[in-house]
């Protein structure tokens, strides 16, 4: 028996050597890209729907994608999201307005304090124009205040002051006023004042 050799025609050779390996390579690359996160099937389906005869066979696209790649939600969900965003912005606005009212009241209080502090130096300047030395020295003013208080209360307040301050205040008082206040003070504090 004689074996006959089968010779491939040009068409068969092209199919087995060129087209079949290209199809296998394209299929393998498509599967790999699909696993890597590329939407190959969606792009192939979109391209196939552009062909007039094939578009009737394939089902319609499920949802159109937005420009940024996200699927568009139904209008009711978009409306709800917009309303939620508006509500959160209104809440933020109310919070900021309440903060602004608080800050305005703080500013008003600080302005009042500044005005009061500005008036106090003006009053001292007016008192110093009278020419009395007792109003310019703060220890003289404090000595007058403590002298007008009862000795018990003056002793309680003065025991909270430093020894040097008490000595300056005592230097502006008479001996009788000093004795009355020292008599009502704690003996340890009074001895510190007299010894230094």
From TrEMBL:
Please list the residue ranges that the record marks as compositionally biased, kind Basic and acidic residues. Answer: 112-127
Q: Which Gene3D superfamilies does the entry link to?
A: 1.20.5.350, MgtE N-terminal domain-like
The reply to whether Cell inner membrane figures as a keyword in the UniProt entry is no
Q: Which UniProt keywords apply?
A: Membrane, Transmembrane, Transmembrane helix
Query: Which organism encodes this protein?
Result: Tumebacillus amylolyticus
What stretches pass through the bilayer? 13-36
Asked if the Swiss-Prot or TrEMBL record annotates the protein with the keyword Signal, the reply is: no
Domain (Magnesium transporter MgtE intracellular): residue spans on this chain: 141-195
Protein's recorded name: Magnesium transporter MgtE intracellular domain-containing protein
Q: Which domain of life is it from?
A: Bacteria
């Amino acid at each position: 028996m004689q074996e006959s050799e089968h010779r491939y025609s040009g068409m068969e050779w092209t199919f087995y050597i060129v087209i079949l390996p290209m199809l296998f390579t394209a299929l393998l690359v498509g599967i790999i890209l699909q696993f890597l996160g590329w939407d190959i099937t969606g792009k192939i389906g979109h391209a196939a729907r552009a062909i007039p005869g094939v578009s009737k066979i394939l089902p319609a696209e499920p949802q159109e994608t937005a420009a940024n790649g996200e699927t568009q939600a139904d209008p009711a969900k978009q409306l709800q999201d917009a309303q939620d965003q508006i509500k959160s912005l209104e809440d933020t606005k109310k919070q900021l307005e309440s903060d602004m009212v608080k800050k305005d009241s703080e500013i008003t209080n600080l302005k009042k304090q500044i005005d009061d502090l500005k008036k106090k130096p003006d009053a001292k300047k007016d008192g110093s124009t009278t020419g009395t030395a007792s109003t310019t020295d703060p220890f003289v003013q404090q000595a007058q205040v403590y002298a007008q208080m009862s000795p018990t209360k003056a002793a309680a307040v003065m025991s909270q002051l430093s020894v040097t301050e008490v000595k300056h205040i005592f230097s502006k008082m008479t001996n009788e006023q000093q004795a009355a206040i020292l008599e009502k003070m704690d003996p340890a504090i009074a001895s510190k004042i007299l010894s230094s």
